[in-house]
User: Fold this.
Amino acid sequence: MRVVAADVEVAALAETAATLEHGSTFVADVSDYDDVAALADHAFETFGSVDVLCNNAGVFAGGFMWERPPTDFTWTLGVNLWGILHGIRAFVPRMLASGHEGHIVNTVSMAGLCTNAYSGPYTISKFAALAATECLAHDLRAVDAPIKVSAVVPGMVATRIGASGRNRPHALAAARSDDATFVEQVLADQTAQIGATPEEVAALIVDAIRTEQFLVPTRASYAQQLRERVDALIEQELPPMPTFD
Assistant:
């Protein structure tokens, strides 16, 4: 396929560009609708159509809920939720108008299915991202659109999400605190030590597109963890925290 890759981080985007045989790149902040609309214009003008849309941008902010400043929630919701909403608004009308089969892949997280301590801003954004993805799939099915949807719910993946603060806007800065530093370091360590490779996750996503699979977990252990969560809720209990393997 021909790929349009977008990123807010120019250097990382240049690295990706070097791997594309048939592709194009575009600098965009997905929390800004105008940027995403311009990205859609670029994609359609460059290649004429969009068959697969991947809303993959994600950032992490965590710590105790009562210690986190409003900017943590503004930042995480802006990228993790509004990035998806902007992508839907900018791309889906044109994808529908083409009448072609297509697929939309939203990267959510295991944190969009289960809750745990120290991660309120991130987890809230990911629960909302999963709801947005499910609603999108229902809406497309309701109009019998030839566009399918997948929600990717990875656990630990060997990316730099633990250091996503490097791209945090100055206007949404937050003072450092022990609780936030602790959980960000744990995340950075765990993704590096036990995280699946991006290539492994990409292969799962490609298979999900081909088989029209909605939920795309990256570990087999998630099935049992989801059962335990649902069982606890049925019993009106606080669900157990998951194991992000």
In short: Residues 114 and 242 are 6 Å apart (CA to CA). The first helix runs from residue 10 to 17.
